[in-house]
Amino acid sequence: MAYDEDLVDRIREQLAGERDVTEKKMFGGLAFLIRGHMTVAASGQGGMLVRVDPAGSERIVATTKARPMEMRGREMSGWLRVDSQDLRTKRQLTKWVGLATKFVHGLPAKR
To answer: How much is the pTM?
Structure first.
């Protein structure tokens, strides 16, 4: 499955006010990086990958429909998968993009 082009456009709109945003094809999807840090991605498996503070990811999973991202059968700490049906509205997408950008802004810029 290819990533959702409509979701990509909606993410671009959400990140329009951010500085130092780049896009990179990764893992069958399209990732958005801020200051060199992968922040969110339109997944090639559908939905979106969202970067969050690893210390708070269990709480987020317990209180939302997000689930831990798995790569090669292993959970990736600090990464969540959000299904397309949970990204239908602008409000839903804003919530997830906001969580990711807030976390990434707390990281030092990559060189």
So the answer is: 0.93
